[in-house]
Write a structure and sequence with these properties.
Distance between the termini of chain A: 30 Å
Number of strands of chain B: 8
Low-confidence stretches of chain A: 344-348
Oligomer: heterodimer
Radius of gyration of chain A: 20 Å
Mean pLDDT of chain A: 94
Radius of gyration of chain B: 21 Å
Order of helices and strands of chain B: HHHHHEEEEEEEEHHHHHHH
Order of helices and strands of chain A: HHHHEEEEEEEHEEHHHH
CATH architecture of one domain in chain A: Up-down Bundle
Number of helices of chain A: 9
Strand order of the largest sheet of chain B: 1-4-5-8
Helix content of chain B: 40-55%
């Protein structure tokens, strides 16, 4: 038992942090700077981070879920407006299905509430499904029911729409005109157990995003509290402000411990235990992140409620990551079912 | 990054699990009855004699000399077996290890670690709580000894203690943090009166107050140098804030396991609110278990106590009070039953945000030492 990051993991973290520090948005206006976004996308594409879950020997992943979580956290910390979670989830699905890597950038499609992967019985894309974290992806994977499980099919995200709360990652409905594209050379049928494992992996990834979001919101609010002056002193010198930020920081530290365990468990634990660990982490992280981001807005006072303050970008990103694979309520239901205390919702 | 057991850790875990099958004393939940506190000394000695206590302390004082992560394995197995938590004496040991002379360490640590000698800690006073440095208990040099006069309160286990680590003012002229020194004072003497304090859940054997009326202590029993008392007190209280040092993971996980069993046994009896409170208690306790694994792993780098102890104290408090709320929701207020165990667990949980430094003081420390908001 040694939960410290390895030297290689520390290096990965530092390089992700420095890339985002250089190319992430520093203001709300910079979200509309296509040149910066292009550089960020190219830089991330050049790192190979989208391929961390591509298959290596015997269909094992190239890198562990912990490494994926390390990158996700640093991207969220810097509000990186670049696709990562979507392509990584798509690569993981292909790996589980023993299918070759996608020819071009690809993401995944979820049911409209973002809690589960979109599923289709036949023919066309489900009308209420959405592709998440679209970025430059031309296709989004979803599941088509067959006997004993699922085959993967691709749908085209609609070109125009940006839906949802998150201003740093794009969500789009699926095109109803384009036909579904079967994934060729799928080595095996995706089973329910595969989807449990994939969900545990996805939950741990969304937790990592929430940790980064919390860290970013707390950092932003602490910087403000150290510089904003009222009554002749910085507002950070008031205990009433200090205690809000201390609470946010403490819940972030607790979140980090459960989220790291969930990421480790996504590879190391049996599927049902991995999902239970991930549900515990998600309930804790989602609750903590919303509160931490709300505190960051409060500490900024009136400014925190304006469009131009970065604080709402963190809150929005947290709300999106919270919804992805289910938030507090869905995660509590999983915890209750796993421990046999009264939930009746299905595990999947 | 590995949350799993190494082969050696796994072997240790199985050995402890087997031992617990026949050696669990089956005491009532901690802090709910005086019977629990009366049985603690025997449990301490039994755990130590079997090699399952003092895992990470040096072998020459009776420790096992292993990495700190073995402590959390002990906590997890104690909880799984429904056994009492390990005794919370680690913070005193850490204080001695850092500030005590070799002579004091070899005289006192083996007895403290093995449980053969019982200890209490005389820090707080009626007028010195959060502002500990304003304490007024005096220690005056008279020949080869110091004479101690003053009033200590919230002194855990003072009723059974053989020794008290007393923080007293030796230099009334010095600034308040610099005039303090620490002493190992023998409790069995005529200058000391011990009075129990009855807490809100009725227990009388955890906390006491101690009146020192010209109690004597050999000058050689001073821990560290004259004036080193504050620094020693800060070492001790920062360890006192660490769940890994206190072994509380075992206590919380055991209580949660028992509440979950009770709810599972009668699935239709409990409403949504009770089951939601119980789910959060389970999640919080699991968070602390994993958090302690992380903190104890960090110690492999030699990282010891610091302001992050305040973070851990606040996390531990949120767990204790979530478990308390679940105990209240599932166990009720004992209106229709003679068994008020869960009510006592709930009432006791309110103390966690006060003892060892209030949650308000911990937040001050997080805000100023970690977030640097006063800069």
């Amino acid at each position: 038992m040694d939960t410290r990051l390895s030297p290689e993991q520390v290096t990965l973290r530092d390089s992700a942090a420095s890339l985002v520090d250089k190319l992430g948005p520093k203001s709300v206006q910079q979200l509309d700077d296509p040149e910066r976004i292009g550089k960020l996308q190219a830089a991330v594409a050049g790192t190979g981070w989208h391929e961390l879950r591509a298959p290596a020997d015997g269909w094992a992943p190239l890198a562990s879920a912990v490494e994926v979580a390390i990158v996700a956290e640093e991207l969220a910390l810097g509000l990186a407006d670049v696709a990562f979670v979507g392509p990584t989830l798509a690569a993981e699905l292909r790996r589980l299905a023993q299918a070759p890597a996608a020819a071009s950038s690809e993401t995944v499609a979820f049911a409209a509430d973002l809690s589960t992967i979109a599923c289709v019985a036949a023919g066309t894309a489900p009308p209420d499904a959405v592709a998440v974290d679209v970025g430059g992806s031309k296709t989004a994977l979803l599941c088509a029911s067959v006997t004993d499980g699922y085959r993967l099919v691709g749908a085209r995200p609609a070109r125009e729409a940006h839906l949802g709360v998150d201003l740093t990652r794009t969500t789009a409905p699926l095109s109803m005109e384009d036909p579904l594209i079967p994934v060729i050379d799928q080595g095996r049928i995706v089973t329910e157990e595969d989807l449990v494992r994939w969900r545990a992996f996805g939950l741990s990834l969304s937790c990592a995003d929430l940790i980064g979001t919390m860290r970013g919101a707390i950092r932003l609010a602490c910087d403000y509290a150290r510089s904003r002056r009222q009554y002749g002193v910085t507002i950070g010198s008031f205990q009433a402000v200090q205690h809000l930020l201390a609470d946010a920081f403490v819940s972030m530290e607790g979140s980090r411990s459960v989220a790291l365990h969930a990421a480790w468990g996504a590879d190391a634990l049996p599927a049902d235990e991995a999902l239970a660990a991930a549900a515990i982490a998600k309930a804790y992280c989602a609750r903590s992140a919303r509160t931490a981001c709300e505190i960051a807005i409060q500490v900024h006072g009136g400014i925190g409620n304006t469009w131009d303050c970065l604080a709402h970008l963190y809150l929005r990103r947290a709300l999106h990551s919270s919804d992805l694979f289910g938030g507090v309520g869905a995660s509590l239901a999983l915890v209750r079912e796993h421990h046999g205390i009264g939930a009746h919702s299905g595990l999947r | 990054m590995d949350f799993g057991d190494s082969p050696a850790e796994s072997e240790f875990r199985l050995g402890l699990r087997a031992w617990l099958r026949t050696n669990n004393p089956g005491l009532p939940p901690s802090s709910t009855t005086d019977e629990y506190w009366a049985g603690q000394a025997g449990w301490h000695r039994a755990l130590h004699a079997a090699g399952f206590f003092a895992m990470s302390w040096p072998t020459d004082i009776g420790g096992q000399g292993l990495p700190s992560v073995y402590d959390v394995i002990v906590d997890e197995e104690l909880a799984a077996a429904g056994a009492p938590p390990r005794p919370s004496v680690g913070y005193l040991v850490q204080g001695f290890l850092r500030h005590g002379s070799d002579g004091l360490k070899s005289r006192f640590l083996p007895g403290l670690v093995s449980g053969q000698e019982r200890w209490c800690q005389g820090f707080s006073e009626p007028d010195a709580g959060s502002d500990l440095a304003s304490l007024r208990t005096r220690a005056e040099r008279e020949g080869d000894e110091y004479v101690i006069t003053g009033h200590k309160v919230w002194t855990s286990y003072s009723d059974v203690a053989d020794w008290c680590l007393v923080l007293a003012r030796t230099d009334p002229e010095a600034p308040k943090h610099r005039g303090l020194s620490a002493f190992v004072v023998p409790m069995h003497q005529s200058g000391i009166e011990q009075r129990p304090i009855r807490m809100i859940n009725g227990v009388t054997r955890e906390f006491g107050e101690v009146i020192f009326d010209r109690a004597g202590v050999p000058a050689d029993n001073m821990v560290g140098s004259p004036g080193e008392g504050w620094s020693l007190a800060m070492t001790i209280v920062s360890h006192e804030r660490e769940p890994g040092e206190l072994g509380y993971v075992a206590r919380y996980c055991k209580l949660v396991n028992e509440l979950v069993d009770q709810a599972r046994g009668e699935p239709t009896r409990y409403g949504e609110e009770a089951l939601r409170d119980l789910s959060w208690a389970l999640i919080e306790a699991e968070m602390l278990r994993l958090h302690v694994r992380r903190r104890l792993s960090d110690r492999l780098d030699g990282v010891s106590h610091g302001p992050e102890g305040s973070v851990d104290k606040l996390l531990m408090t949120s767990v204790e009070q979530a478990v308390g709320h679940a105990a209240l929701s599932v166990g009720g207020t004992a209106s229709g039953t003679r068994d008020d165990t869960w009510l006592k667990v709930y009432l006791y949980s309110r103390a966690q945000s006060v003892m060892g430094g209030t949650s308000q003081i911990q937040r001050n420390l997080v805000a100023t030492r970690i977030l640097e908001l006063d800069k």
